[in-house]
Design brief:
This protein is 23% helix and 27% strand. It is built from 5 helices and 14 strands. Helix 1 packs across helix 3 and helix 4 (214-225) crosses helix 5 (254-273). The longest helix is centred in the C-terminal third of the chain and has 20 residues, at 254-273. The chain starts with 25 loop residues before the first strand and ends with a strand.
Length: 293
């Protein structure tokens, strides 16, 4: 078995599977699978919005979850599972048979694959079994404050602008608010679904397992709304940072980063309160499931 000098755990791998990455020395925040299950009032099959702290979304993993759900009698099928990976750079990801991904993560371990499949299925089942009457509204607001970009902006030899301007990103913060309508006269917040583009690599190269920026963001939104939040990754290709090369415009300290995450959560909260009436849908049932792994 190959043993890397930086692997401080000195653990033995009986299947000689883990040959690329060094072991983590700790956990900064827990990784989760979160699910929202929605069903209209017309008798159509329910759909599941699933968030997983993986580097990539995975068809095989979704199919295995669907097989578990089918065996358990769930009405959620493979075609109606929307898996969104956070593209987290700080989470272990060795549940894929794709050798190309191994170059960035690690070779496949069937134990992790099955563990994740069962955790995702459990989150969906937990949500499905506790559905209640709900109302859904959605909107989009702009939030450019948190995003940098990979390439960076520059000046070429002729003095002309070059590179990738900081502002050229998808700044749309998509918010879907879900209210519990068990008592139509007094609806209460039930859950929030958010789509935003930002790489999860604030703690990259530290060898700490972390949910990265989603951990404080989810905590802030949970506290502000009183309801759980499920996130999905947006058009993340160039959205990452913030970087020191932008000076004071994008904070890189922990305090500054936390403040920006609170700002992001506040934008989400205001967007949810001001959801567009045309986006509302009555007669929807929903509940959120959360399963740590």
């Amino acid at each position: 078995m190959q043993q890397w000098p930086t692997d401080i755990s000195n653990e033995w791998d009986p299947n000689v599977e883990h040959v690329k990455q060094a072991s983590s020395y700790g956990v900064a925040s827990r990784l989760t699978m979160r699910a929202i299950v929605l069903q209209d009032g017309q008798g159509h099959a329910p759909i599941a919005l699933l968030k997983v702290d993986n580097y990539l979304a995975q068809d095989y993993l979704t199919r295995r979850m669907a097989a578990i759900l089918a065996a358990d009698g769930s009405k959620v099928t493979f075609d109606n599972i929307l898996m969104s990976a956070t593209h987290n750079h700080n989470s272990p990801y060795y549940s894929t048979p794709s050798w190309g991904v191994w170059a960035f993560q690690d070779v496949m371990d069937l134990r992790m694959f099955e563990y994740q499949a069962r955790a995702g299925a459990a989150a969906i089942e937990q949500a499905e079994q506790a559905m209640v009457p709900a109302r859904v509204g959605a909107t989009t607001v702009q939030f450019p404050d948190f995003q940098g970009n990979i390439a960076g902006q520059d000046i070429d030899n002729d003095g002309a602008p070059a590179g990738y301007p900081m502002g050229v990103n998808d700044h749309g913060l998509v918010v879907m608010r879900i209210d519990n309508m068990s008592d139509p006269a007094a609806p209460t917040p039930l859950a929030t679904y958010v789509n935003y583009a930002e790489h999860g690599e604030s703690l990259d190269h530290t060898d700490l397992i972390s949910e990265d920026w989603w951990a404080p963001f989810e905590r802030f939104v949970n506290r502000m709304t009183g309801a759980p939040v499920v996130t999905s990754q947006g058009s993340v290709g160039s959205a990452e940072g913030p970087y020191d090369r932008y000076g004071d415009r994008t904070p890189t300290t922990t305090d500054g980063g936390d403040n920006r995450l609170r700002d992001l959560g506040a934008h989400e909260l205001r967007a949810g309160r001001a959801r567009h009436p045309l986006a509302r849908r009555e007669g929807v049932r929903r509940v959120e499931g959360d399963r740590q792994w």
